[in-house]
Amino acid sequence: MQIPFHRPYITEEEINEVVDSLKNGWITMGKKTIEFENRFKDYTGSKNAVAVNSGTAALHLALRVIELKEGDEVIVPSTTFVATAEVVNYFNAKPVLVDIEPDTHLIDVNKIEEKITDKTKAIIPVHFSGQPADMDEILEIAKKYNLYVIEDAAHALPAWYKEEKIGTIGDITAFSFYATKTLATGEGGMATTENDEWADRMRVLRLHGISKDAWKRYSKEGSWEYDVIENGYKYNTTDINSALGLAQLKKLEWMWQERIKIAEKYNKAFKDYEELILYRVKDDRVSSWHLYPLKLNLEALKIDRNQFIEELKRRGIGTSVHFIPLYRFSYYKKHFDYKPENFPNSEWVFERVVSLPIFPGMKDKEIEYVIENILDLVKKNRR
Ligand SMILES: Cc1ncc(COP(=O)(O)O)c(C=O)c1O
Fold first, then answer.
1. How many domains does the chain have?
2. CB within 10 Å: which end of the chain, N or C, has fewer?
3. What are the pLDDT digits (tens) for 179-192?
């Protein structure tokens, strides 16, 4: 059997929406994008939603509107996708890494304050695998030191932190619709915020700093004339992507339930094996289960994580690793002075973690095949 790490869930609904865009004569950002933004606002309960062409773009625009400057510092977890820190580098500002917790892989809030200096401008917590970070503690620190909180919610649609849905808690929240995400449009992203001025500015910045977007320019109510009021970017999305987004949003709750069902099956199957360490979700939050991270108890096994992944691959099971800690990359070694020994939990997790397939539409026999093979590997490689 061959089981990919991820398989997008695309049905006739997505296909029909896209075909409608292709036939109706408007394929770049237009009416469908406005509708997608409105539906997204309703879904997350946020006041403003600004659609862009990636989650990275959403993070970048967020840092632009909070006026991040050269020399500023931004707190980010040491284990995250590179985009979280890369956007800080765009400004010649410094991503200041903070270690994660070993059981949740979330930024360790007890280690944030020691990293704050007069240059610190913001914190970017990452809702790893779909579990919200410790937002109360983060907001308290932000208030004490007058910092902005930009949530990296690339994994967290939908997710709840103590009854509150992700999308309205921090200053700006950035979502991703990359191919493997819980809502997938191939590429895409959304920034939500309660701040109208920031939202307006992000709309201008996403399309070259033009004061009116192309939709208004070319539609009946528009005119040819426009002004450029800021130096912006080409970050707008297209109606083709938004067509996919609209269709995906309609089935998001169902897709999320599918993920939960798979996570529960994995948890039940693996919980009694001392060779395996289950990922912990804290009691007061609800995860989107974008990822299913499983850790190996290396002390109880004869094989390491890489060998485990190779064995699964040989048996037709696709996996991934989330994430290689940032300080391990050449670029970060060259430009910063992070020391791996300062991030013991990131190191510990990285040596042990593997992300298993978890996606809507995964068949029972596929889930069982993954479980059987993991348990077989465990039994054959016990110390
Ligand atoms: C934690 C995290 N942040 C940001 C991003 C960037 O999103 P995008 O690929 O849509 O730019 C991703 C994933 O791709 C991610 O996993």
1. 2
2. C
3. 999 999 999 999 99
